[in-house]
Write a structure and sequence with these properties.
Structural class: alpha/beta
Bound molecules: thiamine diphosphate
Number of strands: 22
Number of helices: 32
Radius of gyration: 34 Å
Shape: globular
Largest sheet: 8 strands, mixed
Strand content: 5-15%
Length: 920
């Protein structure tokens, strides 16, 4: 039955017509109109015209706006805080605000408001308040898709997702809460004062995760993956992930150092386990390791999830998003505070990044370390920023474990149905200080007065079940004792020698720089080149671009004709044919910031896209390329996460300019360059960081090579500054072939992209391998004449050799800076027996670039035989000059000094003729 359109009461003319019909032939109208007019007459008036009953209009309009108000603002009246601070409420939630009374509502038939199943307006309001203002606070009407809003309307009208728990579920919940609470109390007693970042106060987080995993599994998921910070992590590890109590206890005793290197604290460690669920299915569970830096593990997990959701053998980008449920667990201070949060949520619906929706949980304990919400955020709820991304939300008290399950069912069902994010704001409290050694009453005395008096979630739930007659007090106590005993037994067994084995504390340090044969047969390269230039019939690329790309045909025949972008395309093509998948992302990565790549072509007539590397006839793996959103931290973390899970894929992230990579410094420090020694995790991620001094100013010159070199240790990555297209070709192919995966940091060029001297020939791609040191071929025949050796890395090489006339100066390039190629350098140096001075030349300032890293290492190579000088920019606070004129002057000086060291430069240099090589 269609319901009466309430808007019609504003439209006198239309209502008059309907009323006319009603008076002539009531059967001609549908039931809602009939009820409306009957009601109107019953209260003694006509609904329209001169005789329209103003009271009727007042009640109908008022009631209908009250309905809307309850839907919209009902969440403000939910008692969400378990510690009892009152819900703010809203004037709009009262009938009086809308000019009506409870008595008016008693008179109004429910059907007038579109609720034929409710007798009166008062019944309608009671029902709405039960849904919107009792246990769950919903915020969903900000969604712009009406299908989604309608779905929520259906659920709220009585959908099964919001059903209460049955008896068995209730007792299972009691056991769970007893385990959660029991573990914290056991740890607190057995390891007094040890940090555990207890879950207490938000115990139902474990209940939430149980429910989410079960619901996702029932909907077909075979995996669930969780990213979370410290709070409650040990409890999640033990109870959701199934990490044995004994392992946990042994970590508390400091007896277990997992991983191959220096390890990490116990509340950062990841875990993987296959779990059997009450629905009879099994599910693979992953808790990703996280660093202290809050919220950064989330985009890492999103990348991992994306990798796990791939469908082997299917078209590029094909994923089964229902296969894996990703869960991000946030803190209530961190969520609104850390910029990585919106950066990550912004990935949610992007084609290169979507994982079919993330379940977000804010573990809202209403305090961040010692900071109150009033100082932590400018919004009412901790979750508010998610609304801007159209994420539906539910606020729920962590004390109401049953409501937590309802919220979770709704969340997982929404994700399953729409493939989008959902957020649960789980509002609890923190029973202890930030950690268990902290005294919370120093800073939150009155809050902790309340906490002290407040029963635990387990006690609340047990009391309810006792009241409902589901369990007895004795059974509650017996359960508690049984669970405590399990922990005692596990601990006793550990003490009596059953400890898990100690992990090794040595990181392996095999060098990754062994040259691999990475050449590709000439015929293969010719064929790939041809295939990349074969656009589909009817496809019209931009004419200028077509011409530019077609030059790649002749380029293969020209000496040094293969430019950087071309070499990259051939490396990618050959890898795809070999069976290595490729994923390339970055800001404007499809075209390439410097317009050198054009991995995606656009039909100038239709706008259609064509990705030549995605259509190689003999490709055995997929090629994916995406322009990223304007982010560095979230997207780099995403690619890192992807790369950890997709070992069959060459995963590449390209920075717009290398300078901007420092926005992602956390990801580099906490994950990319330290994961192996902390967590035994490996990644073969490639970072392309455009670097080089071309006079573009302080923020378009430097990818901060020095920072990567400073972090280089324990074989934790490879750092290169290649100078030819061929070197880049071999480098990419070597990276794909590594058995022991390591991240690869590439100072990649801007001006070399099209510099003829940096181009390579087909023969260079056909054979050979990446060379960590490039000798000066031009001086090979005159090696014995050479008295001065200039060592450098990267683009400055070309600036120097351009100015060299017939001076007896050899310019040798260190192409791989880490691992440091000591042997190769020694070998090259041995070829110049008459060298009397060695210069390290760089265009970066002295406190930046490779100098401080290279100097002591070169010293070791040179020994005391040869002096080592520095030429480059002096120490600077900012990487480069702002004006082109100043840049050119500096650049010319550096080149001149490199070729003929002036007495003045000697003074500035680190090494002088009289100093020992490599000193300082
Ligand atoms: C990026 C970052 N900044 C600061 C910290 C230090 N820190 C650790 S926990 C914490 C409070 C977090 O509060 P909240 O998000 O509410 O989580 P809770 O600890 O209350 O569960 C702070 C400031 C950190 N770990 N990471």
């Amino acid at each position: 039955m269609s319901s009466l359109p309430i808007s019609s009461v504003f439209n006198d003319g239309y209502v008059a017509e309907q009323y006319d019909i009603f008076r002539r032939d009531p059967a001609a109208l549908d039931e809602s109109w009939r009820q409306f007019f009957r009601f109107a007459e019953s209260i003694g008036g006509a609904p329209v015209g001169d005789t329209a009953d103003p009271d009727l209009l007042r009640i109908a309009v008022g009631a209908s706006s009250l309905v809307q108000a309850i839907r919209l603002y009902g969440h403000l009246a939910v008692q969400i805080d378990p510690l009892g601070s009152p819900a703010p409420g809203a004037a709009e939630l009262t009938p009086e605000f809308h000019g009506i009374t409870d008595a008016d509502l008693e008179k109004l038939p429910g059907i007038v408001l579109g609720f034929p199943e409710r007798a009166t307006g008062a019944d309608v309001m009671a029902r709405l308040r039960e849904v919107y203002s009792s246990r769950l606070g919903f915020e969903v009407w900000h969604l712009s898709d009406e299908v989604e809003r309608e779905w929520f309307r259906q659920q709220f009208r009585g959908g099964d997702l919001l059903r209460p728990l049955d008896g068995a579920e209730k007792t299972a919940l009691l056991r769970r809460l007893t385990e959660v609470d029991g573990l914290e109390r056991y740890l607190g007693r057995a390891f007094v004062g040890a940090k555990r970042f207890s879950i207490e106060g938000n115990d139902s987080l474990v209940v939430l995760l149980d429910a989410a995993i079960l619901e996702a599994s029932t909907a077909g998921a075979r995996e669930a993956a969780i990213a979370m910070a410290h709070r409650g992590r040990l409890n999640v590890l033990a109870h959701v992930m199934g990490k044995p109590y004994a392992t946990l206890f042994s970590e508390f005793e400091g007896r277990y150092a997992p991983g191959p290197g220096t390890g990490d604290v116990k509340y950062h460690l990841g875990f993987r386990e296959t779990s059997e669920l009450p629905n009879g299915r099994t599910i693979d569970l992953t808790l990703v390791p996280n660093p202290s830096h809050l919220e950064v593990a989330n985009p890492v997990l999103q990348g991992l999830a994306r990798a796990h959701q791939r469908v082997p053998g299917a078209a590029p980008g094909t994923r089964n998003t229902s296969d894996l449920l990703p869960v991000f667990i946030h803190g209530d201070s961190a969520f609104p505070g850390e910029g990585i949060v919106p950066e990550t949520i912004n990935l949610s619906q992007l084609r290169g990044y979507t994982v079919g929706g993330v379940l977000h949980v804010i573990v809202n304990n209403q305090v961040g370390f010692t900071t109150d919400p009033i100082d932590a955020r400018s919004t009412h709820y901790a979750s508010d920023l998610a609304k801007g991304f159209e994420v539906p939300l539910v606020h729920v008290s962590a004390d109401d474990a049953e409501a937590v399950v309802m919220a979770t069912r709704l969340a997982v069902a929404y994700r399953t149905r729409f493939g989008k994010d959902f957020l649960i704001d789980l509002v609890g409290y923190r029973r202890h200080g930030h950690n268990e050694g902290d005294e919370p009453t120093f800073t939150q005395p009155s809050l902790y007065d309340k906490v002290k008096e407040h029963p635990t979630p387990r006690e609340i739930w047990a009391k309810r079940l006792v009241n409902e007659g589901i369990v007895t007090d004795d059974e509650v106590k017996a359960l508690e004792a049984e669970i405590f005993k399990q922990m005692e037994d596990a601990h006793a067994a550990l003490k009596s020698g059953g400890a898990p084995a100690e992990g090794s504390s040595e990181a392996t340090s095999e060098s990754t720089s062994t040259p691999a044969a990475t050449g590709v047969r000439r015929e293969e390269l010719l064929s790939i080149n041809e295939q990349l230039l074969a656009w589909p019939a009817g496809f019209t690329p931009h004419p200028r671009l077509a011409k530019q790309l077609e030059r790649r045909r002749e380029a293969l025949n020209a000496d040094g004709g293969i430019e950087w972008g071309h070499a990259e395309a051939l490396a990618f093509g050959s890898l795809l044919v070999d069976g290595t998948a490729i994923r390339l992302t970055g800001q404007d990565a499809e075209r390439g910031t410097f317009s050198h790549r054009h991995a995606v072509l656009h039909d100038v007539k239709t706008g259609d896209r064509h990705i030549p590397l995605g259509h190689l006839p003999r490709a055995q793996a997929s090629f994916e390329v995406y322009n990223s959103p304007l982010s560095e931290m979230a997207v780099l973390a995403f690619e890192y996460g992807f790369s950890t899970a997709a070992s069959d894929t060459l995963t590449i992230w390209e920075a717009q300019f290398g300078d901007f990579v420092n926005m992602a410094q956390t990801v580099i420090d906490q994950f990319i360059l330290s994961d192996r020694v902390k967590w035994g995790q490996t990644s073969g991620l490639v970072m392309l960081l455009p670097h080089g001094y071309e006079g573009q100013g302080p923020e378009h010159s430097s990818a901060r090579l020095e920072r990567f070199l400073q972090s280089a240790a324990e074989d934790n990555g490879v750092i290169v500054y290649p100078t030819t297209a061929g070197q880049y070709f071999h480098l990419l192919r070597r990276q794909a072939a590594l058995e022991e995966r390591r991240p690869l940091v590439v100072m990649s060029p801007k001006s070399l992209l099209r510099l003829p001297a940096a181009g390579s020939s087909l023969s260079e791609l056909e054979s050979g391998s990446f060379q960590s040191v490039l000798d000066d071929v031009a001086m090979r025949d005159r090696a014995s004449e050479v008295t001065r050796l200039v060592l450098c890395s990267g683009k400055v090489y070309y600036d120097i050799v351009k100015e060299r006339s017939d001076q007896p100066v050899a310019v040798v390039r260190v192409e791989e800076l880490y691992p440091w190629p000591a042997e190769q350098l020694t070998h090259v140096l041995d070829g110049y027996p008459n060298v009397t001075e060695v210069v390290w030349a760089q265009e970066e300032p002295k406190n930046m670039g490779a100098w401080t890293y290279a100097a002591p290492r070169l010293g070791a190579v040179l020994g005391t035989k040869l002096p080592l000088r520095y030429t480059g920019r002096p120490e600077r606070a900012s990487p480069a000059e702002g004006s082109m004129g100043a840049h050119q002057k500096e650049q010319a000086r550096i080149v001149a000094e490199a070729l003929a060291v002036s007495p003045d430069a000697e003074e500035k240099g680190l090494g002088g003729k009289r100093q020992k090589a490599g000193a300082k």
